[in-house]
Amino acid sequence: MSSLPAALLSPPPPEPKPEDSDEDLFTVPDVESAPGNSSPAAIEAAKVFGEGPSKSRKGRNPAEREYRRLKRLLRNRVSAQQARERKKVYLNDLESTATHLQEQNMKLEEKISTLVNENTMLRKVLMNARPKSDDSVEHNEKTGNF
After folding, report:
1. N or C: which end of the chain has fewer CB within 10 A?
2. How much is the pTM?
3. In whole angstroms, what is the distance from residue 49 CA to residue 43 CA?
4. Which residues form a coiled coil (predicted)?
5. Whether the Cβ atoms of residue 26 and residue 61 lie closer than 8 Å to each other
């Protein structure tokens, strides 16, 4: 016997035959029409109504489906994370705008209060500064002095 391992002495496994491929396992034969009996009108009708082999599904094996599913999930996760980031930026901007508007509102309310007080004070000064012409006219009418 030789000193080579048994794995090297055994013949290599046979290569899979084309008819043993995974694609053939997942294809469903068309039972309504025998191969070669389809007219061009029937083929066109099958394309219009979504029957028959679809180009978008052609060549998809389970590994490719899983790859596409994982790729889609990853895109979805990235998109969701970007949406969360956009929302966070939007909310921060909204909060800063709300704070700014509250501060501006407080300043305007103080200004209104100051102006109302000033207006009241000026009205009092105006009332006190007016000549008592009304009182003097009434007094003159009573006494008869014009």
Report:
1. N
2. 0.42
3. 10
4. 91-118
5. yes
